[in-house]
Design goal:
Blueprint lengths: L2 H30 L3 H37 L10 H32 L1 H8 L7 H14 L2 H17 L4 H21 L6 H26 L13 H31 L6 H36 L3 H28 L1 H9 L6 H15 L2 H15 L6 H24 L1 H25 L7 H28 L7 H26 L22
Length: 531
């Protein structure tokens, strides 16, 4: 499957998930608002997801996919040449990895459940002075924490399917989470002590559903995974050796998120919720574009590197950067220019008032400044992981972490929760710049002429789009203060005007060409001719 085709497969399903995610967040804002109960659920939801990104999405997949792909290409320790034998060796390795991951996570989840009150003291220390808030945070987190076990196993099976060129089932798993949470709110919000309890149970149930979904998907692809007795085989040791540096790097980023949570717990009630809602909107282009491109790029790049196809690897990296920036820059610009109307239309109703809209919009604008950097990091990271270099990004993550911590402390004093969002954005640019420089220095990335030309043209198209959005907002301002239907219609018109102006400008200036989309119909990864 071509990189473009795979990216659009992942992006399309991720977009469906994000739309459902917005439905979920709209319901959540309506029933929870952005008060202290919402803060408790946000913390309970963040904690297992934080460790999931540490154990699974970041460290585990970055180490597992290149090794698994190597087995499929006959480059594993068994050195098999027959296709059936290669798949059997790859399956054995995946089962060994699955067993080791399951054992480690089972012990970790059990330990965290036992010490949850002490764990909460360290993460949400600002809650300690409010016993009711602290107790609720502990209770909700104990309900959600088993999600970590199931979603981490989902990540492993997702790596198997992605390596086999099957992206759809994996990209659909977040849809199941959102459906579970929506169902929990619609059916059980009034049947539990608080709506936050229904949401928390919905999280854990979603983990089980997602696990069963991908287990069946692997079985249908002829790669059913069974649980073995966990053993430290040579391949598992190699996996851990590759995984640990990435875990440290991912840990650096997750520590920065923990620091954000820790500091926000000392701010006014609702600060965690403001950051959550803002980050959710900021995550839409990150998930649809950055994670999609990075997910599609890593298996392709791993195979090209394993086959010593240097020109193919360089071309894939350039096209991935080009695609990511073309899709990300207009999204970032729009969220910086008009965050208020977006937040107001989506969330401002019932328990979510205008003051909450203003606070969340300010955080969204700050987060969006770093959106291109977040996406670039997802696209540049596979350049290291595909070459089994999981250590170098750690150093860059630690530097970015240091920048983030210092800026957090400096900026939160005058800007409160907005300062935390701005510090995150700045540190993301530091990380992306270091990753880019590291690849260039190793001669693993060289920006070709097409990328340079396309970037200039893309920036020009974005500038024209910003002018249209800015003028459109001024014209539509009265409607954003009217009834809900009028607000929704005004936002739809504004978004449509922005998309149309960017699309027309992009084609007119040559930032994109019709030929670029012919890759969607190709089965092989071919490079489009120069612009």
């Amino acid at each position: 499957m071509s990189l473009l085709r795979a990216t659009f497969t992942v992006s399309g399903l991720t977009l469906v998930s994000r739309v459902l995610g917005f439905v979920r967040d709209i319901l959540m804002a309506s029933v929870l608002g952005a008060g202290w109960i919402a803060d408790c659920f946000v913390l309970a939801f963040k904690l297992p997801n934080l460790f999931r990104r540490l154990f699974a999405e970041g460290a585990f997949n970055a180490a597992f996919v290149p090794l698994f792909s190597g087995y499929l290409e006959g480059a594993g320790s068994a050195g098999e040449t027959d296709e059936a034998a290669r798949r059997a060796a790859a399956r054995r390795f995946a089962e060994e990895a699955l067993s080791a991951l399951f054992a480690i996570l089972l012990l970790f989840v059990a330990a965290c459940q036992a010490v949850m009150p002490w764990l909460m003291m360290g993460i949400g220390m600002g809650f300690v002075g409010e016993p009711e808030k602290f107790d609720l945070a502990v209770e909700l987190t104990r309900i959600t924490f088993p999600y970590l076990l199931f979603i981490s196993l989902v990540s492993l099976m997702g790596g198997v399917l992605n390596s086999l060129g099957r992206f759809a089932a994996v990209a659909a798993t977040p849809v199941l989470l959102n459906l579970s949470l929506i169902g929990a709110m619609v059916l059980f919000a009034n049947a539990t002590r608080t709506p936050a309890h229904a949401l928390s149970w919905g999280v854990s149930v979603a983990g089980v559903i997602q696990f069963l979904w991908l287990f069946v998907a692997c079985w249908r692809e002829g790669m059913p995974l069974r649980l073995r007795w966990p053993r430290l085989t040579p391949d598992v040791r190699k996996l851990i050796t590759l995984m640990l540096p990435v875990a440290l790097g991912a840990g650096a980023y997750q520590i920065s998120l923990l620091i954000d949570v820790f500091l926000a717990s000392f701010l006014a009630d609702g600060s965690l919720a403001f950051l959550y809602y803002a980050d959710r909107l900021n995550q839409l282009p990150l998930g649809v574009i950055g994670i999609a491109v990075g997910t599609a790029l890593l298996p392709a790049l791993s195979r090209q590197v394993a086959a010593a196809d240097r020109n193919g690897a360089l071309a894939s990296q350039n096209r991935a950067i080009e695609m990511a920036l073309f899709l990300t820059l207009p999204a970032a610009a729009a969220l910086v220019v008009v965050p208020g109307p977006v937040i107001g239309v989506l969330f401002e109703r019932n328990a979510f008032d205008s003051a909450m809209t203003a606070a969340t919009a300010a955080a969204l604008g700050a987060y969006a400044l770093g959106l291109p950097a977040y996406v670039l990091a997802k696209v540049l990271g596979p350049g290291f992981f595909a070459r089994k270099d999981t250590a170098t990004p750690v150093r860059y993550s630690l530097i970015a972490l240091g920048v983030n911590v210092v800026l957090n402390v400096i900026l939160m004093i005058p800007l409160a929760h907005v300062g935390l969002a701005l510090a995150t954005a700045i540190s993301a640019w530091v990380n992306a710049a270091l990753l880019y420089h590291g690849l260039v220095k190793r001669d693993c990335l060289k920006s070709d002429d097409r990328l340079k030309r396309r970037l200039v043209r893309t920036l020009a198209a974005v500038a024209l789009m910003v002018g249209v959005i800015w003028g459109g907002r001024a014209l539509l301002e009265p409607y954003f203060s009217a009834t809900t239907p009028e607000k929704v219609l005004a936002l739809v018109v504004l978004v449509a005007a922005g998309l149309l102006s960017y699309g027309v400008a992009a084609f007119a200036l040559g930032a994109v060409r019709r030929d670029d989309f012919t890759g969607l119909r190709r089965r092989n990864n071919k490079t489009v001719g120069p612009a």
